[in-house]
Amino acid sequence: MTMPDSDRLPLSRIRPDVQAMHAYVVQNSQGMVKLDAMENPHRLSAELQAELGQRLGAVALNRYPGSRINDLIEALKRYVALLEGYALMLGNGSDELISLLALACAVPPSPANDQKKAVVLAPEPGFVMYAMSAQLQGLDYVGVPLTADFELDLPAMLAAIVQHRPAITYLAYPNNPSANLWADDAMEAVIAAAGAQGGLVVIDEAYQPFAARSYLDRLTRHPHVLLLRTLSKFGLAGVRLGYLMGPQALIAQLDKVRPPYNVSVLNAEAALFALEHEEVFRAQALDIIAQRALLLEALANLPCAQVFPSQANMILLRVPDAQKTFDGMKARGVLIKNVSKMHALLNNCLRLTVGTAPENRQMLAALETSL
Asked: Which pTM was predicted?
């Protein structure tokens, strides 16, 4: 079998900006203590694995997803206690929902009304998919740097909102990779300013199971606010299930750009199973929160490292030499995330996922030795 001649491939048909992009790279974690991707480290018990296996084995794989998807939507509504007048749509992970939001808001420029390209705005450093989805869907992206201690720079955010009039403003709550919750007064000021410009605000609560606060009980304050969540951090990263909540009229419009059957019957059944055993995953989250507290205390005692507060299942740490420390830990069988090149504010920063107690002990030992 001969390989195609790369000189004759129709690469000119691929968008130049796509060709210039770097693909999202997943680190090879084989044989490692995997603490690089904010995953729940706990697996299901053997009994629950067997029960889930039976459930999945009985799914009608020969049929397109049907009423079971509606069952999942209703189960999630009950799980979050969604209020009357609000609706929920599903995505193949929150990544797909972020892309669909950009697609729905990608209003093309119009000379008739002097309209420019639609804009997505977010604080930085933040989740990379906000910028990537904007670029791929033809929107402009504006990143507003956080303060040195990773808080919202409120004057800069408000000025950027007035200048760019964003169609979508993202507020990750807690933020990734800094793991902190924004101050309530700053959040409200940004939300109000974006609404005054006619834009949507999407509050991304991917790490809500580990946070002291949620915006859910404040969702009714503003008709232009949507709440984005995922079951990945709940404990189902492999299932790929995200959900977006907001006023029915908004969700109805956004749902029009969702591909039909975007959530598989297997994903839906696994998610329903998890929600039926919510107490198991709640106990796992409580264990992760307890382990986080122990890690924060231990990291604070390291003489040459700066640890930042966390309301997520990750911890941001600044060390003298991030690459050297990352390499040292990897050589000792512990995989974390070197985020030091993502943004200037993250200079020499590492992101550590909170694992099980044995994993965390191994991580701390590798970190101390590597420092």
From this structure: 0.93
